[in-house]
Write a structure and sequence with these properties.
By secondary structure, this protein is mostly beta strands. It has no helices and seven strands.
């Protein structure tokens, strides 16, 4: 867990020119001492390929961050040029030697 990654989420709702409520500008939160890693320490991780005459690859990993990090199911995790989509609810592991928060993330490429 030695990377500095960015959590991005929609900003507070604002009204557009027609008066409709729309998401505000994205909010970015820098998270030090974090990582995107394979679940359960497995070196390979999980990925699948779609076989419908396309080259889509769906990769799943875990975003791990220091305990107390505010990460939510609809957040995006930015790692350089990679954009990972958070999925599900975060889990807190406060009683381990490496106390942290984890959430599953997914990246679709191709």
């Amino acid at each position: 867990m030695s990377e500095t990654l960015i959590i991005e989420r929609p900003g507070e709702p604002v009204r557009d020119s027609t008066g409709s409520e729309v998401p505000g500008p994205p909010v970015r939160i820098t998270v030090e001492n974090s990582s995107i890693m394979s679940p359960y320490g497995v070196t390979v991780g999980s990925s699948t390929e779609t076989h419908d005459a396309s080259t889509v690859i769906d990769t799943r990993r875990v975003f791990a961050a220091p305990l107390g990090t505010d990460v939510r199911p609809a957040d995006k995790i930015l790692r350089g040029d990679e954009v990972w989509q958070a999925e599900g609810e975060p889990l807190a592991f406060p009683l381990t030697s490496l106390a942290r928060v984890e959430i599953y993330v997914k990246r679709v490429s191709g």
